Amino acid sequence: MTMSSILALAIFVAAFALIATEKINKVIVVLVASAAMVVTGVAPANDIFYSHKVGVDWDVILLLLGMMIIVGVLKQTGVFEYLGIWAGKKSRGHPFRLMVMFMLITAIASPILDNVTIILLVVPVTVVVCNRLHVPAQPYIIAEILASNIGGAATLIGDPPNIIIGNRAGLSFNDFLVHMLPIVALTFALFVVLTRFMFRKDFEFDPEYADSVMALQERRAITDRALLIKCLTVLGLVIVGFTLHSVLHVQPAIIALIGALVMVLVTGVEITEVLAEVEWATLVFFAGLFIMVGALVNTGIIESIGQWAIGAVGHDYTLAGATLLFGSALVGAFFDNIPYATTMAPIVDVLVNEGSDPRNGGFLWWAFALGADFGGNGTAVAASANVVGIGLANRSGHRITFWQFTKYGIVTTVFSTIVAWGYVYLRYIVLA
Prior knowledge:
By secondary structure, this protein is mostly helical. It has 20 helices and no strands.
């Protein structure tokens, strides 16, 4: 190894360790690490804003920005409060039915919007309904978080690792629908059955408290009906644009930005209020990560790891797929799956394109995506949705401890990963 590659690796490992321990704000960590890489010359200063290979991936950053603006406008309509109250009334206060309704809302909305935002919108409503029923909100919030991580895996925009993987591999929105949606739907259906057993001690029904839920008026949650219609119309057009982007030859990021602009213009909302809803810290975090990983690519470390991985698995794509899926789920369960996916994507790129059969090795991307996405359920810190949901629960007085979440997360991750491997093995190896 050269001195520059040793230096790049040392800075990267130190930053990753600090991110994992969460002792210092992760945005500060990646900014300091990326600056150190630029100053020492291991990251190419002239390319970090312009190179698709070793610089910031603006397609990912701008896609996230566009969707955050869209969600910021949609949030003002009160549609998620409406859905939460509607779910509570449809369940008639029966705990398991209520949990299934909440999981359905989060699992269906997560592939369309991002799962962190869905958790931000659904958890407060869940707390209101659970308080009415006089039942602990923790099982419902945990189930919603787990369902959002499973549901978000279905599309290109549902989970941040998918955006990173899709952009690196050149996979379209429709590619994700064809390859990920079937297994996500199956896994979610089985997960619903699993929750019946995991949370069986928490399903206590009280008819008196159920009546108080039935008294809630969901229509009052919609603050502006005209605004809601405009938002849903634009959102529908954006989704159509995503499905046609490979035909139109327009990047998803462009579609998201145009959709965000149109939504702001037709609704007439105050732009400063919408921009205040954008998670700028997350976008900066992504930019810093791309610079750090670009330094590893620039110094040849990613290429070396990729070649080592090819040598380790030989030409055995079954072994490579199993290693990627289970390994990603294991590592992703203990570290935030965003930096993990950012780091691993270039390595998987080498495995796919420089292996003995690049045409048939493409399924490794799906094994990688399923492992990274489902691994996000493993522990309380494995995905951003987990951290956000637990934080909201704690602030509402329904405290969720690290281990309280993790004991359900580990069971769900093991269960969903085994189901995912069965799908990958049958579809891409046995039936290929």
